[in-house]
Design goal:
With 208 residues, this protein is mainly alpha-helical. It has one domain. Helix content is 71%, strand content 6%. The chain has a two-stranded antiparallel sheet with strand order 1-2. Helix 4 packs antiparallel against helix 5. It is elongated and about 75 Å long. The two termini are 29 Å apart. The mean pLDDT is 85.
């Protein structure tokens, strides 16, 4: 075996090792995320007491901190509230928000695992890869944005049901994070690139 052949073989082994690591890692992350979200949903639906995080405050001012000599203004972003006696409706909304917030990451990890399998087979540009990336883009955008809307409605129901507006929690507030939209659009562009690569691969195979 010549020196160039030995180097090529070493590179191929290294590439396969990296692909194998990425395949196992992405599949493991997806599995852990699925188990975690199922456990979270079960806890949300069955726990006697439930901690609801990131609830908006009607008056977010933090007077004690603002009185410090070097501080000109201070406020609280949100409050975590542990409640009991919550009915089924807000619990379902909280569980849905958790599930929707995770579905994009799960789909993305599964697509990465599938792309690693396609690379192992030497055919990265396939219809399943293109549609998988496109589906992940939709899941990231829809899941991320819908999760925020559903969680805002869940917080509204918690405040209304337990009459927490009287103690300073905001009846309805929703902060929109557009990061899922940006990630989804980036994945959509990648899906378009894979579609072009699929056509070029098909044309090359026809010429051969």
């Amino acid at each position: 075996m010549s020196e160039s052949q030995r180097v090529t073989r070493t590179l191929q082994v290294a590439e396969k090792a990296v692909l194998g690591f990425m395949l196992v890692s992405s599949a493991a992350v997806a599995l852990i995320a699925i188990v975690a979200v199922i456990a979270r949903v079960i806890t949300t639906m069955t726990a006697e007491t439930l901690t609801v995080a990131a609830m908006s405050l009607e008056n977010p001012a933090a007077e004690a901190i603002a009185e410090a000599p070097s501080v000109t203004a201070a406020s609280f972003d949100s409050a975590s509230v542990t409640v009991s006696g919550l009915s089924t409706s807000p619990r379902m909304l909280l569980a849905m928000a958790d599930a929707l917030g995770t579905v994009g990451m799960i789909c993305l990890c599964l697509v990465v695992a599938w792309l690693c399998v396609c690379l192992f087979a030497g055919r990265p540009f396939t219809k399943t890869a293109t549609w998988g990336i496109g589906g992940a883009a939709i899941a990231v955008m829809a899941g991320g944005l819908l999760s925020q809307a559903v969680r805002a409605n869940a917080h509204f129901e918690v405040v209304y049901e337990l009459d927490l507006e009287a103690v300073g929690l905001s009846s309805f507030a929703m902060s929109i994070d557009l990061a899922p939209l940006g990630w989804g659009l980036a994945l959509a562009v990648i899906a378009g690139a894979f579609e072009i690569g699929q056509r070029m691969q098909h044309d090359t195979e026809r010429l051969v």
